[in-house]
Amino acid sequence: MDIFERIAHCVEFGKINEKSPYPPNMRGEVGADELVKEALDSGIDANEVLDKGLIIGMDKIGVKFRANEVFVPQVLMSAKSMSAGMAHLRPYFISGAVERKGKFIIGTVQGDLHDIGKNLVGMMLEGNGYEVIDLGTDVGGEAFVNAVKENPGALVGLSALLTTTMRNMESIVQQLKDNDPNQVVFVGGAPVSQEFCDKVKADYFSPDPQGVIEVANKLMSA
């Protein structure tokens, strides 16, 4: 395997660094942390490291997750591996040497403190080249609107895990649309459906993080 394939492999299987004991069959091997640094130190372009290594790995784990071939713990390990590699790329993002695909504002809606689903989506978006503005949990409409004003052109994702809090999505979507009728809003979470998405007049619903990424990529490339 070339270094891009090795980076993608580490992300797909959650190998963070040489000290990481997971996965057991890769114990003692270097992970995404060392490989990304090695690639950059050897003069490989940071954009190639992102596009041909980290993003490929995150895409593979995203497809597996959608097909129920892996579960949340494995995806979290992949996200940690990706984050270890991304740490070496951040200076290139700051300098402008690497361009983000776009910005994505994400948060769990007011009244809801659950964050695993939101975090998964955020991590996978970051691994796919997006700048993620994570507003956290229990986020009201005003905070989302303010974040949009500070980040023009950003996509917005609303998350909820409870049937009682998913109702708050409707008012938040309305506030976002009142601020900008063209604002793109995604909704997601265990109790959320396409029917509910249509009802609250959000733009997109996906039952899994990979779907969010696929739609976001289409929107950004349009």
Q: What's a quick, concise take on this entry?
A:
The chain has 222 residues and is of the alpha/beta class.
Extract low-pLDDT stretches. none
**Care to count the β-strands?**
5
Task: Write out the strand line-up for the largest beta sheet, numbering strands in chain order.
Answer: 2-1-3-4-5
Fourth-tier CATH superfamily name of the largest domain: Cobalamin-binding domain
Distance separating the two termini: 33 Å
How would you describe this structure to a colleague?
The protein has helices spanning 3-13, 32-41, 46-66, 72-95, 116-127, 141-150, 163-166, 168-179, 194-199, 209-221, and strands at 102-108, 130-134, 155-159, 185-188, 204-205. With 222 residues, the protein is α/β, with parallel strands linked by helices. The chain folds into 2 domains: 3-95, Methyltransferase, Methionine Synthase (B12-binding Domains), Chain A, domain 1 (Orthogonal Bundle); 102-221, Cobalamin-binding domain (Rossmann fold, 3-Layer(aba) Sandwich), CATH 3.40.50. Strands 2-1-3-4-5 form a 5-stranded parallel sheet, sandwiched between helices. Strand 1, helix 5 and strand 2 form a beta-alpha-beta unit. The mean pLDDT is 95.
Short descriptors:
222 residues, alpha/beta, Methyltransferase, Methionine Synthase (B12-binding Domains), Chain A, domain 1, Rossmann fold
Question: What is the topological layout?
Answer:
Blueprint: H1 3-13, H2 32-41, H3 46-66, H4 72-95, E1 102-108, H5 116-127, E2 130-134, H6 141-150, E3 155-159, H7 163-166, H8 168-179, E4 185-188, H9 194-199, E5 204-205, H10 209-221
Parallel strand pairs: 1-2, 1-3, 3-4, 4-5
